[in-house]
Amino acid sequence: MAAHIQPAGVADKGIVGETAAPPPVRRRRKLGSGIEIAVLTILAIVMLFPVLWMLETALKDTKDIYAVPAKVITGWTPTLEHVKNVFSSNSPVFSGFKNSVIVATASTIIATVLGVPAAWAYSRFAIKAKKDQLFFILSTRFMPPVVVVIPVFLMFRDLRLLDTLQGLILVYAAFNLPFTIWMMKGFIDEVPAEYEEAAMLDGYSRFEAFWRFTMPLLIPGIAATAVFALIFSWNEFVFSIFLITDPDTRTAPSAIAGLIGGTTINWGLVAASAMIFAIPVLIFAFLVRRHLVAGVTLGAVRR
Amino acid sequence: MAQVLVQRLHKQFPDGTVAVEELDLEIGDGELFVMLGPSGCGKTTTLRCIAGLEEETSGQIVIGDEVVSGLKPSQRDIAMVFQFYALYPHLSVRDNMAFPLRAAKMPENEVTERVNEAARMLQLEQYLTRKPSKLSGGEQQRVALGRAMVRHPKAFLMDEPLTNLDAELRADMRAELKHVQQRLNSTMVYVTHDQVEAMALGDRIAIMNKGNLEQLGAPMEVYNRPATLFAARFIGSPPMNLVEAEVSNGHLTAAGGLQIAAPEGLKRGDKVIAGVRPERFTVSAEGEGARGRVVSREALGDETIYVVETEAGLLNVRMPPTARFAEEQIVSVRHVGAPPPAYDPQSEQVISK
Questions:
Q1: How many CB atoms lie within 10 A of CB B55?
Q2: Residues of chain B with C-beta less than 8 angstroms from the C-beta of A192
Q3: Vertex B23, ends B22 and B27: CA angle to 5°?
């Protein structure tokens, strides 16, 4: 049967539920008791301290960083010296940032270009063993990626993909694809197939119908999905450090990690690099925060 | 307009589900043909096969004089109206209705003419500049109908088009739909699970169950003489009383002394199931008939439905509002009027003449 026919009884229950009792009104919570405020303040300090400390270190002069006792809030003048060093052409992290942008963008594009049509097919067509296939796709994400790092390393060695951005792009696209398919299938399921069917009856081919009518409605979903993929690729550390040893093709996470381990550690540069590294993720996470929460509560409420 | 033929249609989905076993339908030119059945009976799949949205596993579809199997939906010259109206949200009512014509590259002045004609017929003139989201459900459904009408297609396919409307509006739209169909003299294939809708609209009704045709006939024919027990249970509200009875002395005798006029074509001693409509029973306080206890009464204003527990089972009885019996009252139920159809308990097919 077509999917749009509502199973018997579902609608009735909804109506009964609505009329029998009004939905509970959510009480506007006030930040009431002193204890509550105290606990939340302590939690906030604990959570934010590393971030603030990192920000402060990034802006301090090197001699202020090493000062004992530590100059915590006052007694030092901010400097953008370290931030400048991050972007200087001979800095080891600058090329890392460039590579990260290339890898994250390319792998996200590949995952999206492959994942959206796949999700559409899974959403719209009767496919043999569809559930099993979807489960298989999801199951590739069940294990921690680090489990396969050695097999991938060996394969890449034979394929001469070690130390190349292409190799990393492939791995990240492969990791992002299942996620893209699943998330996009959710978005496509919500766009009624009738739009496409009506357009097909009106004279468009199946693909045109998808492209002209479903696609525009999917743009927000694609954007959200792509941002998730982008954040994953941007943050990925394990594969980056295992598969790439050449400083020229290292991505930012491993390049920043590489700053630590010499005889002297330039903490200012480390902190500034980490701050700059975190900014895109913060921005993107802010953009898709609604979907982050939706992901957590997915399936909890039947609409 | 054209006739639609469904010939030996069989549809199996890739996951192995058989939606349609084998179906032959002959839908006449200008006929309003209703396919009726519960969810999963194959009615929507059949419609989608006619539309070309599903490809038949075997068999063929003929529209007009042309075998359309294998043709794309757009090449079949048919229009479809969906349960969910599928209006394009970013287009105004006018553009929505003009859409199929513009897609077919029709000259703009003719497009305007046809859209205006359909809008006039459906009383949509004042809404032409609005977006679908600013319309009520009934208006949206009229726009969807208009979008189908402007094309002057060979046939209209309606997939539960009124299901999403509330009850009052549904009755209005039903009348309007029938009116438009008659005025255009169009061939219309209408899928619904609502037997009232089927009775009200259909020139003929095809009752389907589990991918098979149970019965095909005019509404009153289907109502008076359901061909199978399934059709008997499906048509009519409250449903037909199915009473186990034995043929004796020109009567069907059921448990508790309930006597029902015997139809022709039965042998003495046959055990059958008699299908008695609620209006063919009558309740009286005293007198002949099966004694029973009133277990519920629904006063609907123009009629009252009693459920009476007798030895022959729970019987639904439709009575005029003048009859007054209380719940728990002991009453007599007897059969009046023409003999009911009788069914074979094993084959579930009608066996009386």
A1: 10
A2: 84, 86
A3: 170
CB B6 within 8 A of CB B157: no
Non-local (6+) Cβ contacts of A206 within 8 A are A196, A200
pLDDT digits (tens, 9 = 90+) for B129-162: 999 989 988 889 889 989 998 988 999 999 999 8
Question: Which of A10, A191, A202 has the most B C-beta neighbours within 10 Å, making it the best mutation to test the interface with B?
Answer: A202
Two structure tokens written together for B255:
């448990």
Residues of B in contact with A200 (CB under 8 A): 52-53, 72-74
Q: Do A8 and B39 touch (CB under 8 A)?
A: yes
Q: Tens of pLDDT along A189-218? A: 988 888 899 888 888 888 988 998 888 888
Cβ–Cβ contact B200 with A under 8 A: no
Residue ranges per structural domain of chain A = 34-79, 81-297
Query: Residue B220, Cβ neighbours under 10 Å: how many?
Result: 10
Chain B residue with Cα closest to A129? B15
Contacts of B92 (CB under 8 A, 6+ apart): B128, B129, B130, B131
Cα distances from A82 to residues A85, A107, B212, in angstroms, run 5, 30, 78
* ipTM of this predicted structure: 0.78
* Integer Cα distance of B48 and B13 in angstroms: 13
Hunting for tokens 């069914």 — which residue is that? B343
Tens of pLDDT along A174-183?
Answer: 999 999 999 9
Question: Token pair 């396969």 is at which residue?
Answer: A148
Closest approach of chain A CAs to the CA of B45, in angstroms? Answer: 6
> Chain B contacts of A4, Cβ < 8 Å?
82-84
| CA proximity to B313, closest of B287, B338, B295 | B295
Q: Taking Cα atoms as reference points, which of B278, B267, B205, B289 lies closest to residue B242? A: B278
Q: Per the CB < 8 Å rule, is B73 touching A201?
A: yes
pLDDT tens digits for A216-253?
A: 888 888 988 998 899 999 999 999 999 998 888 999 99
- Helices and strands of chain A, counted as H and E runs: 15, 0
Per-residue tokens: A189? 């399921």
Which pair of tokens denotes residue B99?
């859409």
Q: List, edge to edge, every strand of the sheet that includes B251-254.
A: B258-261, B251-254, B241-248, B271-276, B342-343
Bigger pLDDT: B206 or B168?
A: B206
**A129 touches B at CB < 8 Å:** yes
Please report which residue ranges of A191-237 form alpha helices under DSSP H: 194-201, 206-209, 215-235
Distance, first Cα to last Cα, chain B: 37
In chain B, what are the domains?
4-234 (3.40.50.300), 242-343 (2.40.50.140)
| Helix axis angle, A165-190 to A130-139, nearest 10° | 140
Distance from CA of A208 to the nearest CA of B (A): 12
> Does the A81-297 domain belong in CATH 1.10.3720.10?
yes
Written as one string, the DSSP assignment of B162-211 is TTTS-HHHHHHHHHHHHHHHHHHT--EEEEES-HHHHHHH-SEEEEEETT
CB-nearest partner of B103 from A2, A128, A204: A204
What does the alpha-carbon distance between residue B77 and residue B335 come to, in Å, rounded to a whole number?
51
Tokens 């006018």 — which residue?
A: B94
pLDDT at A86 over 50: yes
Concatenating the DSSP letter of every residue in B260-287 gives EEPPSS--TT-EEEEEE-GGGEEEESSS
Beta strands in A53-124 (DSSP E): none
